[in-house]
Amino acid sequence: MILPLMNIVKRIVGGGFPENEYPFMATIWLFENGKYYFKCGGSYIGKNIILTAAHCLYGRDIRRFEIRMGGNNIFKQRHTFKIKKVVINKEFNSSNLQNDIAIILIDKEPCKLGYKSLLIPCNHMADECNKMGAPLNVIGFGTVAPNVGGHIENLKKINVQTIPLEKTGYNHKLITKNMLLANNIVGGKICDACTGDSGGPAFRKINGKNYIIGIVSWGSGCSKKKLPGVYTNVFGYHEWIRRIGGFPPCANH
Ligand code: ARG
Q1: How far apart are the CA of 221 and the centre of ligand 1, in A?
Q2: How many angstroms separate the CA atoms of 201 and 194, rounded?
Q3: Domains of the chain (ranges plus CATH)?
Q4: 230 C-alpha vs ligand 1 centroid, how far in Å?
Q5: In this predicted model, what pLDDT tens digit does every residue of 17-41 receive, in sequence order?
């Protein structure tokens, strides 16, 4: 009788939300030394397309990656996908992580397996996407402390808010208009993404639908008050995503 109780406790630690709450969460795995290792998060955005951070894939042989989806437990994901093609944004700079965005085409369409996608913001959503102080949900299997590596077992969610560059301690030269800065302070604790959350979504419900606003990209350490998480501002790439992904202009696919 002790076991079921432990499971409940674990589920709460892992987020405390229903099993299929985030049917767009994907994970990226890299095959090395005879085994798949968790590398990054990603988001399903429709058709056979996963959106992630370029630094998750950069410089690697794409045949060594696979994508998994389905469920809150990282060891029990229901579906595995092979990668057909990767498109890393041409402007990606691996030294300062500018334009940290990439598209992955997988071998099956998750929507046909019951998954729901995040929507890509449209032109008319510029204000909504760039508004300071706006809330964002961030989900991932990343660790809760920097430099530990690895991942946690159950998907976690944090709520953060975008903050203007002026209020942070970041060198202004490092932050471009295509980056969003966000964290949150809850009961004196700073909520932030961390290692392993990279590539995963920062999203928000707008008119009842979940839109992808940011991609976890980098940060100076984790959970430091003046050094919030840095996210790729997806709005700046919405046309690129549509073109590369073959989505109709501003359609709610
Ligand atoms: N670059 C990290 C990764 O590869 C993500 C770090 C995000 N850091 C932060 N403080 N929000 O997983």
Answers
A1: 8
A2: 13
A3: 23-117+238-252 (2.40.10.10), 123-235 (2.40.10.10)
A4: 8
A5: 888 899 999 999 999 999 999 999 9
Q: Say how many Å lie between the CA of residue 199 and the centre of ligand 1.
A: 9
Ligand 1 mutation target, pool 216, 230, 231, most atoms within 8 A of CB: 216
pLDDT of residue 228: 96
User: Ligand 1 pocket by C-beta < 6 Å: which residues?
Assistant: 142, 192-198, 216, 218-219, 222, 229
Residue 253 pLDDT greater than 70, yes or no: no
pLDDT (tens digit, 9 = 90+) per residue, 146-196? 666 679 999 999 999 999 999 999 999 999 999 999 999 888 889 999 999
Atom from ligand 1 closest to the CA of residue 192: 11
Rounded Cα distance, 209 and 252, in Å:
10
Confidence (pTM)? 0.92
Distance 213 CA to ligand 1 centre (A): 16
Written as one string, the DSSP assignment of the chain is -HHHHHHHHHHHHTT---TTS-TTEEEEEEEETTEEEEEEEEEE-STTEEEE-GGGTTTS-GGGEEEEESSSBGGG-SEEEEEEEEEE-TT-BTTTTBT--EEEEESS-GGGGT--PPBPP-GGGHHHHH-TT-EEEEEE---SSTT--S--SB-EEEEEEE--GGGS-S-GGG--TTEEEEEEEETTEEE---TT-TT-EEEEEETTEEEEEEEEEE-SSSSBTTB-EEEEEGGGGHHHHHHHHTPPTT---
